[in-house]
Design goal:
The protein is an alpha/beta fold. The protein is built from nine helices and seven strands.
Length: 206
């Protein structure tokens, strides 16, 4: 009997623009442009980001205001509708619920597994809390243990555990260096190519 399918997607870079890059562009703080596409150590990256926010006295409200102006990537909504008509979809992200809420509203509130920020009385972000280590990989492993066939797509270093754990993993518009370092994952550059690969896997129809 064919297993039911769950597709696990990264959020930033796959369905929506990179949040921190957009905040960097709006605030003019160039240091905030660094993402997991360049820095594989997420804890180091987040500590760097929080120090920058503190130095510039930016609050959660400042960041949420900029995120609210963002929208999904071109074609993302149609792709997500196409996918959700065929299979279950879970967004696995290293972002934070306080950041993601405006974007989830625009995406029709798909299921999202991510993390929490600790906000001080003044609105300053004082800390961040991951649900667990390697949460994307563990989420996929748990779905497999529940007898789902898992397909995953992501674009960054922090997606590698998820892609490797999934029954089928794909890069979506990764930086050039990643496929060279990790050539096992097929590379897709647009939603049409990703759809074609998903259909080619053979678990759901076009």
């Amino acid at each position: 009997m064919q297993k039911p399918v769950v597709v696990c997607l990264d959020l930033e870079g796959v369905l929506v623009p990179e949040i921190w890059i957009n905040v960097a562009l709006k605030t003019g703080i160039e240091e905030l442009k660094t993402t997991t596409r360049e820095m594989p150590d997420y804890d180091q990256l987040m500590r760097q980001r929080l120090a920058i926010l503190d130095r510039h006295e930016l609050t959660i409200h400042d960041i949420q205001e900029e995120i609210a102006k963002m929208g999904p990537l071109d074609g993302a909504m149609d792709f997500l509708v196409w996918l959700r008509e065929r299979v279950q979809v879970i967004i696995l992200s290293d972002t934070f619920y306080q950041f993601a809420q405006p974007l989830m509203r625009q995406l029709g509130f798909p299921t999202l597994f991510c993390n929490q920020l600790e906000i001080g009385p003044s609105g300053r972000i004082v800390n961040y809390h991951m649900r667990m280590q390697n949460p994307k990989k563990h989420a996929v492993a748990s779905l497999k243990a529940l007898n789902f066939f898992t397909i995953a797509a992501g674009d960054s270093y922090n997606d590698l555990g998820m892609l490797g754990e999934a029954d089928k993993g794909f890069f979506y518009r990764p930086p050039d260096h990643l496929p060279k370092e990790f050539p096992a994952f097929p590379v897709t550059q647009n939603y049409g190519e990703l759809q074609d690969w998903f259909v080619r896997v053979g678990y759901f129809s076009a």
